[in-house]
Description:
Chain A is of the alpha+beta class. Chain A has six helices and five strands. At the A-B interface, helix 1, helix 3, helix 4, strand 1 and helix 5 of A face helix 2, helix 3, helix 4, strand 1 and helix 5 of B.
Amino acid sequence: xxxxxxxxxxxxxxxxxxxxxxxxxxxxxxxxxxxxxxxxxxxxxxxxxxxxxxxxxxxxxxxxxxxxxxxxxxxxxxxxxxxxxxxxxxxxxxxxxxxxxxxxxxxxxxxxxxxxxxxxxxxxxxxxxxxxxxxxxxxxxxxxxxxxxxxxxxxxxxxxxxxxxxxxxxxxxxxx
Amino acid sequence: xxxxxxxxxxxxxxxxxxxxxxxxxxxxxxxxxxxxxxxxxxxxxxxxxxxxxxxxxxxxxxxxxxxxxxxxxxxxxxxxxxxxxxxxxxxxxxxxxxxxxxxxxxxxxxxxxxxxxxxxxxxxxxxxxxxxxxxxxxxxxxxxxxxxxxxxxxx
Lengths: 176, 155
């Protein structure tokens, strides 16, 4: 992959000063492409890593508890499921209310990422970012309107930035 | 979502997609466990999952790793680049290994890229290099708090 340089730096960081040890790292590398589709997937991984199935499960649970694994789950291809439009909606909301508002916006089914980010006044007044996915641009704009409604008087301005081109997408994968 | 792809999914496919978006257990026979909850059997679930992955209805099935918790530093950076200078700037920006994603968006702030670096201070160094090389300002927008990262697609 073309992303090897970036990922190798990430992996050395992981080795040097994080709670991910060599075995955790081997487990991450072994599951980056996915969980084995066999009746005992954790035993299967264990055999490849030379440890027990119990240790694999324990390490996965431990990484999940520390937030290193967000969850073990299926990732749908939203384009194949008809959600072909995405817009980055950016909002100006009062800083003192951002946590409550961010949680409410982030809980919406059509929002995939929701972050509090730095403003750059006066050029960039927006502090809340919410990525909105839908079947069409019009539908994205409708969903954005529903966010505006949800924010009510805390909505001090917003814009939607549709993507025009993907210029680079190397992703972040640990190298083996 | 009246889409041809979703029309080809039957009720079991839909249940599998919906249930597995929420999570998957860690246990000795996790597929059998989930199959039981879905009123099917382990073999059927494994076959269906393989087919959904083969058809690219699912892009992936497995642990979702949080790269930042593994020690990396990340930031979203925006630039306002005059359209006639965009190609040159994109080439410079994409030339940095630290740039993991780069998108053109329909806005005066038209370039949006994600930096992934070993430590937070490297972000500033890379941005200084990019500003120097391009002659345009980088607006660093690090994540101050994350409220939700997930796209649940009910099918």
